[in-house]
Every structure is written in structure tokens, then in C-alpha cells.
Amino acid sequence: MAKANVKEQLLTTSVTLLHSKGFNATSVQDITDAAGVPKGSFYNHFTSKEALGMEVLQRYLAAVAAIAAVLHERSLAPTVRLQQYFDGMIAANAANDFHSGCLLGNFSTELSNQIPAMRGAMQQAFAAGADSLAAVIAEGQQDGSIGNQMPAADLAAFINDAWQGAVLRAKAEQSRIPLDRFVRLVMSNILH
């Protein structure tokens, strides 16, 4: 049981450190010091820092999936689902005062050329997110609540890309203003 607790301490600490400081700027020693465990414990649970990074990414994506669950809530109108999803994503960014940005975006910038397995996992995550958005957009196009008739997949990909830019800007400004502007323009102009 203690081993599972040590692994959990390492993962929880790593999510925070890697998200705020970055992958390359965070050493294994930084992680074990912050987790309050001996450095040797790290290698009892992870074969490498890259393996830890993959688990951290999966944990982060699970948290995003929990926010995105509203996109699959078919009892709500498509535009309501989209608005609630964006509200949830903004709240998640606000929880860290807009300092950390999106771990997926941060890792994409930092690790895409360094760790091929990480790049593949990030590509899959971006594609899955776009697919979820595209399904809701297509529903809205069918019921008339979304007037833009461009292919739903193209709209979803653009919205995902623009979201990443808005998050980056919010991180630089440490403000929600870019995210609020993003949602306002997407909902009232892009999808109108």
C-alpha cells in the first residue's frame, strides 16, 4: 500500500511541477524533493522521466475529459453544451490564476521534437478533442442552432487551435480576458 501512496505522491507533485515549471526545467530531484520521498523511490515507480511525463499527460487528459463530459450530455442543446464546456475550461485555467496554461499545449511546445511517443499521445489527444467538438457542432448544424455550415471537423479543429492560442495569451497576460473573448467570438460569430 505504501508504494501506491509514493507513486501517487510523485504523480500529484509532478502534475503540478511539470505544468507550472515545464518538463525540461523540472528535474527528478525537484520532483522527489517536492513529494518528500527519496530520489530512489522515483525509479521504483517510473523507468524514466519520460515515462512519468506520459503518465502526467494521461492524468491531465483525464481531468480535461471530465470537463468535456458535458459535450456528450445529449439532454442539453448543442450550444448549451459548448458554452458549458468552455466555461469549465476557463474555470480550470482560473484555478491556477492563468499562470500555467494548458499542459497539452505546454508539452506540445516543449516536447514535440524531443519525445516521439509524447508527440503521438498529444496528436491523439488533440484529435479526440476535435472529434468531440465536431460531433456537437454537427448536431447544432442539423438542428439549426449553429448556422455556420462549414464542415464540422474543420470548425472543431479551428476552435481547438484558437483555444490553444487564447490559453497562451491568457497565460502571458495572467488574465481571463483572452479566454472570454475567444468564447464570445466563437459562440456569436464562428458558430452563429
TrEMBL record:
Key words of the record: DNA-binding, Transcription, Transcription regulation
Pfam families noted in UniProt: TetR_C_13, TetR_N
Organism superkingdom: Bacteria
Limits of the HTH tetR-type domain: 4-64
Transmembrane helix listed as a keyword: no
Record-annotated DNA-binding residue ranges: 27-46
Keyword RNA-binding assigned: no
InterPro entries to which the protein is assigned, alphabetical: Homeodomain-like_sf, HTH_TetR, Tet_transcr_reg_TetR-rel_C_sf, TetR_C
GO molecular function, one term: DNA binding
Gene3D superfamilies from the UniProt entry: Tetracycline Repressor, domain 2
PROSITE patterns recorded: HTH_TETR_2 (PS50977)
Protein name, UniProt field: TetR family transcriptional regulator
